[in-house]
Amino acid sequence: MKKILLLSDNHSYIDDRILSYAEKADEIWHAGDIGDLKVTDALAQKAPLRAVFGNIDNHKARKEFPLVNRFYCEDVEVLITHIGGYPGKYSPAIREEIQQQPPQLFISGHSHILKVMNDKKLGLLHMNPGACGKHGFHQVRTMLRFTIDGKKIENLEVIELGKR
């Protein structure tokens, strides 16, 4: 069983509250718009980190992290990209890959809108953790945490970090 912390859209912001949740995770997944790499450096000191770059990320982040990260965690195939959309409204850049080879878990960021929903047509679960940074239109900073045990994604929890 793995305890996962999922976050996105830091826009260079990191604080002790985010890091306290990171300490409790077995793995940290970041869905892009990291900003300053001090964010991912700090997170990687707490637990193994998987990340993708986002549209605001500079050449350093783009060199360190991929645009799309596809991997297995336990027995769950995961696909993470920053601009991915959601069931029924997938981004054109990723739509074909999702439709031809749907993962069990599809993760994106970018919208700053927390969203968890099933795609019954493709048999996948979509997660967007919202934004945990202070830049953007969102009113409450959010992250997600959950467990993966074999093929099961369980114990999903929304973490609200307060107002911007």
From TrEMBL:
Return the protein name: Uncharacterized protein
- The organism named in the record is Mesonia oceanica
